[in-house]
Amino acid sequence: MPTYQAQIYVTLRPSVLDPAGTAVQSGLHHMGFTGVEQVRIGKYIQVTLTAEDEATARQQLDHMCDQLLTNPVIENYRVELAIKAPAGTVA
């Protein structure tokens, strides 16, 4: 079975307040970066998994995100998926 490398990007839904992002934005303004209009904080997750094919891998990742890795009520996620090159090879 092929091995896949997934990058999962988790962000708050646009309607959800982001106090951490607001704090970072304020800090940037105090540092002189006055052109920063908005900061949103998210998560980045890497998952390596084996699956029969890409569709199965994506289905498993969707279940992982819905059940554990994200809070579907307040967060959105995006998955980037690639076949992982065998050890010792150049991708």
Structure, described:
With 91 residues, the chain is α+β, with helices and mostly antiparallel strands. The protein has a domain at 3-16 and 43-85: 2-Layer Sandwich (Mth169, Chain: A), CATH 3.30.1280. It is 31% helix and 31% strand. The chain has a three-stranded antiparallel beta sheet, covered by helices on one side. The protein is elongated.
Architecture blueprint of SSEs:
Elements: E1 3-12, H1 19-30, E2 42-50, H2 54-69, E3 75-83
Key features?
about 90 residues; alpha+beta; Mth169, Chain: A; 3-stranded antiparallel beta sheet; 2 helices; 3 strands; about 30% helix; elongated
CATH class of one domain, anyone?
Answer: Alpha Beta
Count, helices: 2
User: Mean pLDDT across all residues, rounded?
Assistant: 95
Residue share in β-strands? 25-35%
Distance between the termini: 18 Å
- CATH homologous superfamily grouping of one domain: Phosphoribosylformylglycinamidine synthase subunit PurS
Strand order of the largest sheet: 2-1-3
Rg to the nearest angstrom?
17 Å
Shape: elongated
Strand segment count? 3
CATH-defined topology of one domain: Mth169, Chain: A
Topology as a string of helices (H) and strands (E): EHEHE
Kindly name the structural category: alpha+beta
**Main sheet: strands, sense, barrel:** 3 strands, antiparallel
Query: Helical amount among residues, as a percent range?
Result: 25-40%
Specify the CATH architecture of one domain: 2-Layer Sandwich
Parts with pLDDT < 50 across at least 5 consecutive residues: none
